[in-house]
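Q: I'm a student working through a structural biology exercise. My instructor gave each of us a protein and asked us to get a predicted structure, then write a short paragraph describing it. Mine is Protein kinase domain-containing protein. I'm not confident about reading structure output yet, so if you can add a plain explanation after the tokens, that would really help. Here is the sequence I was given:
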Amino acid sequence: MSSRAINTKPRRSIRYGEENQRSSLSLSEYDDIFIGCMEDMSCTTCHDDGCTKDENGLQWTMKDVMRASVGVLGETGLGVTEKLVFLDGKSCVLKRFRTVFVGRKEFAHRVGILASISRKCDYLVPINAYLYSKRFKFVVCDYYPMGSLHDLLDGARKHGHTPLNWNQRFKIILHTARAIAFIHSQPPQDKNMVTNVHGNLKSTNIMIDVDFSIRLANYGYTQLATNTPEIDQLMPLSPPSPLPPENINNKVLSQKSDIFQFGLILLDILGGTKALDSTQRGFVDESPLSKRGGTVESWEFS
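A: Happy to help. First, here is the predicted structure for Protein kinase domain-containing protein. I'll explain a few features afterward.
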């Protein structure tokens, strides 16, 4: 089984607009490594007031999570995203980080803060549990079967469909703005954390619920793990996302960067890929607005 896992071919997932690489395998493919483990670590449950070891809460263990993994949804510079289906039928999403730069206690402290904040807002994906072990560091969140905004826009464009009407697009824009406003209003809670910045805004992190409300994912995850821009550049399905000058090296967390990325999301929703391409040409009379009559109502659905 080990040889099969090592020789697994790269797989591409339309869901989440991300591509899985051979170097990042599903947890289930490592199951044989853990069969002989003497100790099975318990996941820490996250509640409204943070994360605690609660005997009355979830009792997921590392082996439970490994067995529940049914497939890789995608990969970004932060890590691998997997879908979990437990025996009781509950579906969740696991975010397994590639390179965590904080220790066990600090990781638990930061996840607790992020979990507490995310559960106070209806437009953020809540963190349900986490685990910090020698081999794996991950968080477990809710699963949204409709996928991300990028899935709806990019997948439909390739098939010539119109995935969203104007009311649905306006709702997504409004909810995303509310999520960003909530994050930006957060007071400082720790001198070593920046809690009033998302840090990784893009259409693949806007999860769509069945009523077309949104949940913003990956809030604060750049405070836990190192982002690897080289991995993102290998994802041909990911939307173009140029960085503002002050964040060109992806090292500075700022609200200005969040607003810049929100502007790119607006262009993607309203103008499509041509509008995003115009950002790389400096908006020199190449925007869809100048080509299609000058009013938003005259644009075609992307």
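A: Here are two points you could use in your paragraph. The longest helix spans residues 166-184. Residues 44-229+252-276 form a domain with the Transferase(Phosphotransferase); domain 1 fold (CATH 1.10.510.10). It's a good idea to check both against the output above yourself.
Q: Great, thank you!
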